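Here comes a specimen:
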Amino acid sequence: MGAYLRKDTAQIKADLEHVYELFPRLRERVKQLAGTLSGGEQQMLAMGRALMSKPELLLLDEPSMGLAPILVDEIFDIIQKINKDGTTILLVEQNAFKAMSIANRVYILETGEVASSGNSEEMIHDESVKKAYLGG
């Protein structure tokens, strides 16, 4: 953000409406200062702001960190919607099972190098991955 200013007023309004559809709580809190929002609401705001730039690729670093379990499910549902709408998602997440459950492709990093990779279905059922990262 900050690299350019959008001038397409009608499309900006449409994009903002789309963000409010994804994150109805933001519409409810539209007059509230960002710093006074809950952790989950701040995460929604950060994602909404990023979506306003109409990215082709959205990088998400630990979107579930510190959130209540019900909000984690909500955030992951929204991530899937964003992806289905055509935005590629690169997700870095400690909650391995949750991340793998929505991913198309999985890369497991150990000390900065790819230790394992594959499609999510393969990785969830891989015995070494289960043992090391999924508690199985």
User: Anything to note?
Assistant: The mean pLDDT is 91.
